[in-house]
Amino acid sequence: MSDSDTAAAGDKHSELLDCCGGLNNIDYSKMDLKWMEELLKHINFHDSNFCIAVIAIIFNPLFWNVVARWEHRTRRLSKLFGSPYLACYCLGFVIILLNVYRSHSMTVAMKAQARWEVMDRTDVFYTGVALIVLGTLLVVSSFLALGFTGTFLGDYFGILMDEKVTGFPFNIVENPMYWGSTANYLGLALIGASPVGLVLTAIVAGAYKVAIRYEGPFTGLIYQERSQHRKHE
Q: Is 134 annotated as a binding residue?
């Protein structure tokens, strides 16, 4: 390495240290967290409706991932129903019912707890409406692009798509079904001026984030196995 390269590297290292030092020098105790305190004051975390909603949020992606992986490994559902398509349709129907119940439990929890006057504004209301429109667009267009089996884990039943879907909305955002659903819940929270709705929406986003980390690599492995099988044919 030349002297000039060494000097440049040294400068970059110094800049990085200065940046990190600047972050370390931030006095977080002086940050205004009153809005967070006010938000938490309006939430009863011991409310049974809130607890039920949290359980429903966490249970749903856990359920369909466990069942779908079990099916992929054993093909028990396909054998039970006599067809991978029928088995996938039945699982999809169960998932839809679970999601309806999750939405219901979140709505009940939001109605059971206090509204926050800070959120009870016209601009917040219309932001919520816009998020619901956007979320619905992402969910519906994703379903139309993937079809029923593509949406409801048909890959795990051996129902594989010919090629990866890259059109709208997948050319805009990855996992549009999940993030569209999250946008819908956030929109409902804003329309209802519901602080507990914001917390529940954050839990939904977290649950989906975890599900994506497990589903993405596993689905990729399924298609990789198909590709290797075709090469040996």
A: yes
